[in-house]
Amino acid sequence: MTDPIDAHVRLDTHPIHPSAATAVLTGAQDRIAFMALEAANWAVVAENVLVLARIDHEKPYWAQDAAKHLTAAGITVEIIPRLQEAIDEEWNWANYPMPWCTRSEIREVSNEAQKIHDDIRHGQLLMHAHAHDGHTTVAVGTYLGQGGKSVYLHGEDHLRQVADTFNSPAQALLAFEKVHASEMRPGRRPSPTPNAPPSKSAPSSTSPQPSPNPPARSRRQSRSTWPTPATTTPSSTPS
User: Which pTM does this prediction carry?
Assistant: First the structure.
């Protein structure tokens, strides 16, 4: 049996962004919980507060996953009722472009897209150019650091995937320009609103159909720019 750890984690929905969850840490050994959550890609917003932001509907699943791992490690976890309600809720994407996929397989696709999103947000994946191919956004970028590959990205948000890789930015840009010269624009596709929460609208049935298993990419942790939630007793009003 795992010895208890003097750490308490309170998981809740973010008070401003419904697409995010928060973790408030207390206890003499709260650093253990802190490191575990940070390793799971929860972003630090204050000394004892972390936020999990998602570009899909999977905040409840990954919050529950974190709770299971923390509890197994001997850390006390409290899930606020409104977050537990979201965890217990059953839902499906309307008109999902991969109807043959199971819920678990759909989650794999969106989680790989989340990794790409985080790599860009953390500055580990530098975007060179983007375009619209008539169906969705395509882009080209390079992973920074020694031996970083250049990648061709296809799709948007929770459907974005690595469609091809190149040995250098020059190769990637030449290949991208050859196909998308007329629509090619520098840098990444601009967001409608900086730091806006992810949309909960379901993708169109005409959206491109990505591979269910795009390659995973490592990423660095960085301090989040999300607002810090209040650490007072949370409201019980469901999100």
Answer: 0.67
For residue 207, pLDDT beyond 70: no
Inter-CA distances, 148 with 41, 61, 201, 218, 238, Å: 21, 31, 34, 11, 44
Q: What is the identity of the amino acid at 155?
A: G
- Distances in Å between the Cα of 123 and the Cα atoms of 76, 90, 92, 126, 154 are 34, 34, 32, 6, 19
Q: For residue range 115-174, list pLDDT tens digits in order.
A: 999 899 889 999 999 999 988 999 999 999 877 899 999 998 888 999 999 999 999 999
Q: DSSP assignment of 198-235, as one string?
A: PP-PPPPTTS----S-PPP---------SPPPP-SPPP
* 3-state DSSP assignment of residue 44: strand
What's the pLDDT tens digit per position in 7-46?
999 999 998 887 799 999 999 999 999 999 999 989 999 8
Query: Whole-angstrom Cα distance, residue 172 to residue 215?
Result: 17
Alpha-helical segments (H) within 89-190: 103-121, 169-180
144 or 190: whose pLDDT is higher?
A: 144
Secondary structure (3-state) at 187: coil
Q: How far is CA 180 from CA 26, 138, 185, in A?
A: 52, 9, 9
Contact predicate 117/160, CB 8 Å: yes
CB distance 129 to 185 below 8 Å: yes
Helix (H) or strand (E) holding 8: strand 8-13
Residue 120 and residue 176: Cα distance in Å, rounded?
Answer: 18
